[in-house]
Write a structure and sequence with these properties.
- By secondary structure, the chain is an alpha/beta fold.
- It has two domains: 203 residues, FAD/NAD(P)-binding domain, CATH 3.50.50; 189 residues, FAD/NAD(P)-binding domain (3-Layer(bba) Sandwich).
- 22% of the residues lie in helices and 27% in strands.
- The chain has eight helices and 23 strands.
- Helix 3 links the parallel strand 11 and strand 12.
- Helix 5 packs across helix 8.
- The longest helix has 19 residues.
- Bound molecules: flavin-adenine dinucleotide.
- Flavin-adenine dinucleotide binds next to helix 5 and helix 8.
């Protein structure tokens, strides 16, 4: 897949030195550059949850579909979660319907890649008990109870999408949500999860306002579970987070400090970024990358020619929501344009506000295929020059979009 003129150095970058226009690899190789594109993705921070170790995932009833290590080339989350599904199904078959298994899905407060993945996994898991999944069997949904716990008090923060999901949950009869609950600790032996619940408490009566004053409080809440699925906290990779390339303060601290519209670094004009590493508002998704690719291409070429950036990223992100095996949510929003931060006026058919794609039945990943296969996003980067790719695994999505 690598075009001519690209040299692939299969090493991890340990140090970014944008003052000297160079990077240093794990094997202490120094590489100078004229222009730099950072596409290092993100890392999972399972250990932020007290009592949890990465190695525990896949045992003790704990799963995480995210579990992988792109530096090592390990992608085991999907496979081990499928196995987790199978184990729950077997346990549920032995359960009496009056004593359902409790299956907990958690999502913490941090930027999440593949927004909606926790929700998808929840719905697919429930589908497995219906008997219609590849596992087959009887409909034993009455033997399981799901709780979806997350710190935010909404699913994706988009009214119509969230309403559709709430309806699904309410109609299911075996799912409930626990919003405001942020997982902080896990006791795997006692099968208990501990949450910080972010709330407000009344203090004194305020005569002027004729209301009680309120202060934010964090209360502890415990929840027993039989099985738990964890969406991990996500962070920028160390080399970026500890470099001058990262935002140094604020809620995006550690993520690559680019201008969200032109994808160029805010301080180093010869540095660009793409993919999950970006410290910009909005989604971290493959869908976003397909839109970022052409923007990066044009602005990078302009910079190489000494010109100003010529185009802007619109903040697009997408998330096909699978609610059954082989089926995305019928007549629901599966693709969303989030442009609030760019202040582009709303245009129903254009690049403003929300644009909604309606998904018909039985169309897996319709948005993904539909969108990502658009000819303009598949266009290659065809310009002269030498590229060096520094990285030691081939799964970088951003890289493949750039080089396609
Ligand atoms: C379970 C799951 C479901 C998802 N569902 C969807 C979906 O439905 N729709 C959607 O659009 N997106 C989805 N996504 C998100 C999508 O997969 C990611 O947004 C995308 O893969 C990110 O690509 P990236 O190239 O930025 O990062 P990655 O693919 O993580 O690649 C980063 C690369 O950088 C390398 N690297 C890391 N550190 C260094 C370093 N210091 N030096 C050199 N190289 C380094 C790594 O080895 C890796 O090869 C999902 C993701 C997951 C995990």
């Amino acid at each position: 897949m690598l075009p001519d003129g690209v040299e692939w150095i299969r090493e991890e970058v340990r140090l970014f030195d944008p003052e000297r226009n160079r990077v240093v690899t794990a094997k202490r190789k120094t590489i100078d550059y004229d222009f730099l594109v950072v596409a290092t993705g993100l890392r999972y921070d399972y250990e932020r949850i007290d009592g949890l170790k990465r190695e525990m995932i896949g045992s003790k009833g704990i799963a995480s579909v995210y579990l992988n290590d792109t530096l090592k080339g390990e992608e085991i989350g999907g496979k081990s979660t499928w196995e987790w599904f199978r184990q729950i199904r077997m346990a549920a078959e032995k359960r009496a319907s009056g004593k359902p298994l409790k299956i907990l899905f958690t999502q913490l407060s941090s930027p999440v890649k593949g927004q909606g993945t926790g929700e998808k996994t929840l719905f697919l898991c429930n589908d497995m008990f219906r008997g219609s999944s590849p596992f087959g069997g009887e409909d034993i949904r009455r033997n399981v109870k799901f709780v979806f716990a997350k710190k935010e008090k909404e699913f994706l923060g988009i009214d119509s999408y969230d309403r559709a999901l709430e309806e699904r949950i309410d109609d299911s009869g075996n799912m409930e949500k626990a919003f405001g609950d942020d997982l902080v600790e896990i006791d795997s032996d006692r099968q208990t999860a501990v949450f910080d619940y972010h709330d407000f408490e009344k203090t004194e009566w305020n005569e002027k306002r004729e209301a009680f004053d309120v202060v934010p409080v964090i209360k502890k809440a415990m929840m027993k579970y039989d099985f738990i699925h964890i969406t991990p906290p996500m962070k920028s990779v160390h080399a970026v987070a500890n470099s001058p390339l990262a935002w140094q303060t604020g809620e995006r601290k550690g993520w690559l400090a680019v201008d969200p519209s032109i994808l160029r670094h805010v301080e180093y004009p010869n540095v660009f970024g793409i993919g999950d590493v970006l410290g910009i508002p909005g989604g971290k998704s493959a869908g976003s990358i397909y839109r970022e690719g052409p923007v990066l291409e044009k602005n990078l070429v302009a910079a190489m020619e000494g010109k100003e950036p010529v185009t802007e990223f619109d903040g697009y992100t997408s998330c096909p929501l699978h609610i059954k095996c082989g089926e995305t949510m019928p007549n629901s929003i599966i693709t969303v344009w989030r442009l609030r931060y760019l202040s582009i006026p709303y245009k129903p058919d254009g690049y403003g506000g929300f644009r909604i794609f309606i998904c018909s039945k039985r169309s897996t990943s319709i948005s993904f295929c539909g969108e990502s296969c658009r000819p303009e996003t598949k266009r290659g980067l065809e310009f002269e020059g030498r590229w060096k790719i520094v990285g030691n695994h081939e799964t970088s999505f951003a890289r493949s979009v750039l080089l396609h």
